[in-house]
Amino acid sequence: MLNKLDKTPEVDVEDLIGEDSTVIDNLTDDQVKSLLAKLQTAAGLTPSEVDRVEMFENASPSVAYIQTSIQRASPFSASPSEYPLGAGSGFVWDDKGHVITNFHVVAGGRGGRAELPRKVMVKLHGSDEQIEARVIGHEADKDIAVLKVDPSLVTLKPLQIGSSASLRVGQNVLAIGNPFGLDFTLTSGIVSALGREIQGFGGRPIKDCLQTDAAINPGNSGGPLLDSRGRLIGINTMIYAPNGVGANVGIGFAVPVDTVRRVVNQIISFGQNARPSIGISVVPDAERVRWSRSLGRRLEGAIVADVVKDSPADALQLEPVRSQFNGIVLGDMITAVNGTPITNNEDLLCAIEESEPETPVELTVMRNCDPARVEELQLTPVQRKSLEYGRG
Predict the structure, then answer these.
(1) 362 and 337 Cβ atoms separated by less than 8 Å
(2) Residue 243: CA atoms inside 13 Å, Cβ hemisphere, count?
(3) Which of 27, 29, 104, 173 has the smallest set of CB atoms within 10 Å of its CB?
């Protein structure tokens, strides 16, 4: 039956199945997909177009149009007035109602004040109405926010989650989002570079980001970047904007899905501010480099500036920098985590935050920055929020 399409340029579906509609019912899913593909090819689509159309039709129900607003008291009304705050994109993470977007989408824009809105409205493809969502957690440093909608109010189709670790420059990618409010727009391109470092909303760099030439514009923020099979490989986050021009110039950046998966699962499982921590603050990299020059020797690692009471670092008696007479005594310096060298503060933060919950890590510590006093120590990171009481 399927071979009939190969012989007939113009296919009438009724002629194909005749009066017996059970023919279609008896086909497997793969046979139905093959039949539809052949019908589309017969209609003038190339095989690559058929694949792209199928990917969009499968993935677009998972993409969300997100609008935010804030309520403020009005001198002209007894009731508060609602002001639009911004708009962007997002996508369905699971069937429990979790929707993922950029933190800056729900915090008033990248250049604005980081103020979570009172109301977040989500609209899914094929739905005529918006539904309200709650922000259940966010990680500003990674520009990720997790929303929650009532799963009983809408049909949820989670995206298939891919991997960003094995991506290669030149791979085809597709972006679905709401640029300039034009909802559910598809653009395509390639992975144009890997390992880029961009600035997160919280001020820390986001490492290993993807660069793409797929058209990304304002409103695409928070939307999915997909591979050719429709699997999530990143969150579209920002564009390169020379001279402040805020539109596509062929260079966009996405937070890699491996980072997204780790942060989102932490928030869903443990709540806000649950990322792993060992309970220290560190000396700024620039200060460490200045001390290195003054001493005439290399200080490569993360130097402990402060230790939170009753933290894992406190249990190991890690020593912070301290004042003495007219100078300072250098604190302990962490030079490796699980054997991986630490050359700056971001290396340490990423190594700890990417560790598995309740799993011990090995620290290589140079006591008081003395090369003759290197120790191998073991500790287990804890949730950052559990250290808040110790800070007092």
Answers:
(1) yes
(2) 2
(3) 29
